[in-house]
Request: fold
Amino acid sequence: MDGSVWVGLAGTLIGTAIGGGLSIWASVVTQNRQTKAARDLRVEEKAEGAADEAITQLYVIRQRAREFPQERDGWAAWQRELSRLASEMEPAVLRLRDDALRKQIEEVLGYMDMVYDLTDYPVHRGSLMLPSEVCRYGLDCLGAAVRNRPLPAPSPAILKAREIDAFIQEQVEMSRQEGGR
Reply:
């Protein structure tokens, strides 16, 4: 065979090897992108599912918060029920992807352990509707997150709950300091 045939054959083989290698590389890159896109979609679906579950559970808590007992002797059971419902919601909250949203919802749920303090008007100027309105703020936050909107500004109810919480923490610290003397 002639030398030009060998050069042509070698060029063809090298071209085929390079083309095949690039084709394989492009297939791998495409497959990796598709895998990442599918994984991101699953994560997003789980996050949306967690938000939907959190909305449903917080709505139940809000409804229960509105059903405050008329008699003072039923308040302890009412507070335990709200606290139980809030603790059952924690797994859904942990799956929320947005840290700021998760912090807001955890704050709302934390106030369900303080229902008696939030409703104690003579001491803290609380109100019977404050727990329900705190939940309303949590629902507003979850709704904004589901719609990809910024979180709403703190509502008057959440600001009042924070004020009551700060007052209680101050009282606890003062008691602790007096007990240490």
